[in-house]
Automatic annotation (TrEMBL):
InterPro entries from the UniProt entry: Nicotian_synth, SAM-dependent_MTases_sf
Organism lineage string: Eukaryota, Viridiplantae, Streptophyta, Embryophyta, Tracheophyta
Gene Ontology MF annotations: nicotianamine synthase activity
EC number: 2.5.1.43
Pfam families: NAS
The protein, known as: Nicotianamine synthase
Annotated source species: Daucus carota subsp. sativus
Length: 324
């Protein structure tokens, strides 16, 4: 087991200790400084497997991911409120959000992967689960890449959806193609069959158990052949977001996994819903599994790479080996 003796792990634990003592995670000088330090610590490629950390660090990582999720929500709400106060189109001012360029890069990466492995034609209906108060992924994809697609954004928080819908209400195009639904992802059932592509936000399911439960739900209700796009994390970036392993995707054929090594933090996993009948796996209190489990033949991952924004065609060489 790896414990606090690694300088990187020690630094992350120190930052966590400072974050956990703050009275509020709302945007402020102290909050911004600590999270900037945390991100800069975790971004450089590091040969670290978070599953092999000692129990104490595992617990710190779990709590840190929840802190990051809360802070991210507060940051997005703060900027969504500012953007919504503009008299003209709020979407003309998105660049005031400090991480806007990261979303531009991430959305381009996801679109590139989707064109390589997804539907031949532009999807008509896409679902984004966990869209939040500042749905930049949906906005950027709809504005620059999927320009004829309708986006259905789902979030459990009604106030987040109120802020988000206000952002697109003054845009003549997106106001007609973006829809917002206030509902728990686990309560979305038959509607999932209507989408050719489903995006799952990184913070829907804050730990492995919750995330797998959501994926299991999607495997039960998504249309056969539909594409699932997930955000994961790799290396030290797993201190910021939950990790999805290809073997977690029961009922799906994992098509590819991408680990950026630039300032785009999230890894991207693309999978296709298997056409075979899939029965949800339910664990009882003793941990026994019931139901039919469909596993991908291979559960390997791709090596990290820096994706070339101006050489999109190179990405196709990084697919997982053909699956039986």
């Amino acid at each position: 087991m790896v414990c606090q003796d690694l300088p990187l792990v020690q630094k992350v634990c120190e930052i966590y200790d400072k974050l956990s003592k703050l009275n509020s995670l709302k945007p402020s000088k102290d909050v911004n400084t600590l999270f900037t330090d945390l991100v800069l610590t975790c971004i450089p490629p590091a040969a670290i497997d978070v599953t092999k950390l000692c129990k104490n660090v595992q617990e710190i990582r779990s709590r840190l991911i929840k802190i990051c999720g809360e802070a991210e929500g507060l940051l997005e709400s703060h900027y969504s409120s500012i953007l919504g106060s503009f008299d003209d189109n709020p979407l003309d001012h998105l660049s005031i959000f400090p991480y806007y360029n990261n979303y531009i890069k991430l959305s381009l990466l996801e679109f590139t992967i989707l064109t390589q492995f997804g539907p031949l034609d532009e999807p008509k209906r896409v679902a984004f689960l966990g869209s939040g108060p500042l749905p930049l992924s949906s906005i950027v994809l709809a504005t620059y890449h999927l320009t004829n697609t309708c986006f259905h954004n789902y979030d459990i928080d009604s106030s987040a959806n109120h802020l988000a819908s206000r952002l697109v209400s003054k845009d003549p195009d997106l106001s007609e193609r973006m829809f917002f639904h206030t509902v728990d992802v686990m309560d979305v059932t038959s509607a999932l069959k209507e989408y050719e592509v489903v995006f799952l936000a990184a913070l829907v399911g804050m730990d492995k158990t919750e995330k797998v439960r959501v994926i299991d739900h999607l495997a039960k209700y998504m249309a056969p052949g539909a594409i699932l796009m997930l955000r994961s994390a790799h290396g030290a970036r797993a201190f910021l977001y939950p990790v999805i392993d290809p073997c977690d995707l029961l009922g799906f054929e994992v098509l590819s996994v991408f680990h950026p090594t630039d300032d785009v933090i999230n890894s991207v996993v693309i999978a296709r819903k298997l056409p075979l009948p899939f029965h949800s796996t339910n664990a009882d209190q003793q941990g026994k599994l019931e139901g039919t489990i469909v596993l991908p033949i291979k559960c390997s991952e791709i090596d990290s790479f820096i994706y070339p924004l101006n050489q999109i065609g190179l990405i196709e060489d990084l697919a997982l080996e053909e699956q039986v």
